[in-house]
Fold:
Amino acid sequence: MLIQQVFNGLALGMGYALIAVGYSLVFGILRLVNFSHGSIYAFGAEMAMVFIGFQFGIVPGIIAAMVLTGILGVCIDKVALEPLRKKKSMPIASLITTIGISNIVTQLLIVSLGSEKRNFPALFNFGSIQIGNIAVSSTQIMMCVVSLALMMVLVFIVYKTKIGLAMRASEQNAKAANMMGINVNFVISFTFFLAGVSATIAGVLVGSYYQIVYPNMGYMAGLKAFAAAVLGGIGSLPGALLGGLIVGVSESMAATFLGSTYRDSIAFIILIIVLIVRPHGLFGRKGITKV
Amino acid sequence: MMLEISNLHTYYGAIHALKGIDMSVEKGEIVSLIGSNGAGKTTLLNTIVGVTNAKSGKVVFEGKDITNSPPYTMTKMKISISPEGREVFPELTVEENLRIGAYIINDKKTIETGYERVYQLFPRLKERFRQQAGTLSGGEQQMLAVGRALMSNPDLLLLDEPSLGLAPNFVVMIFDMIKEINKQGVTILLIEQNANMALSTSDRAYVIENGVVTMSGKAADIASDPGIKKAYLGMG
Structure:
């Protein structure tokens, strides 16, 4: 029972981790918590469902949703956040803007697709593996495999490519990066694009796990993933992964052993405890300052 | 003229920081800007590279109007800057910092040549190329800032207070390097509070006070001016 719940939680946690990296990437470069990220995740999942419904193949459908959601992230930055940066407005203005955008995106989904829950195809349902008395479904295995692969791709981009170097430089000193020939606004757009793509993959995985998507699915998932990002140390990719797994496992434990009423609050209880002991999160760097 | 600035006005909010600056830099020269704190030297440099926008006036580089072009387009035009306070990337290694300096260059060979040039000028950086820049001493960070600026292979190098806060032996070394870089064919515009060193290194100089050029000419002539001696050179 216990081990079974750990496995269930790990699969779920991978989904949170993929949403959490979106918070981390954007926070790293802008020192901004992008509260619209949960709605971007819901948008990605809904778009995947719509495109898969067009019958031109599941993989092209998912890719189209990834690209479209990435572009949505870029547009949010260009339309609402970049003008604020140009005016050097106070950070809280950007923060409230992202909360507003979150509502706008969710409402747009409701207006265009309806607010009801819709069935999402079980994409990876090839049965399950029985180990002793633990059953691991192929969907859970695929969630772990796809998430880990995407994490590795992200780590590769950030630490081994030229654009990744530009991301890290802009994160540490945007003004100097700009003077060295890096178009920092382009780097920020790229970061929002990556965050949107990761959120879509998370949306597809979680959607096909529960076989359900709906416009409001990003609200609670977004908050929990944000908790996961802070728990792991916001700005850190390994931190987002670990944070996501902790949130996922604790949630599935709480649902089983404490009752399902606790499942949505346990992530935040753990967050508070960890932050009291380690204010910078598990993988957080001390003394990170905005230059 | 390589760089020509005419009637440049810049404001910081309500503060009129540059009040009609005229100056020019010729290819191959070392030109220094001297003046006290808050005179407008850094503002002038920031306006040249587009960090701060000019209200009116012109910046022309190699015949092209570059007034208020965004900073990231400078290296492409072969203008490079070593900013005030060094501004190295503290959590990147020395090598990564240099790689960022060559961001606009894609040719691997050109980048390799850039590393070699910098390591030859500053052997200390070669010893520390895998070290995080934040762990370097102030003098080493200054070398890195200058080296990073050289990586884009500039024609014009802008140096903002390269000697600020450095130990005397480092100051002498940095100025020797400036002469050496100039000999390699790089034109240099230098901002300095250390007027003594700046004037003895430069061909020409401009004195800025309260956002206005109050004197300009051959560095040697300015160094022997009685008013300058009294105000900036601690003599007289």
Observations:
- The interface with chain A takes residues 49, 51, 70-76, 81, 83, 87-92, 96, 99-101, 103-104, 148, 152 of chain B (CB under 8 Å).
- Residues 1-77+189-236 of chain B form a domain with the Rossmann fold fold (CATH 3.40.50.300).
- The radius of gyration of chain B is 17 Å.
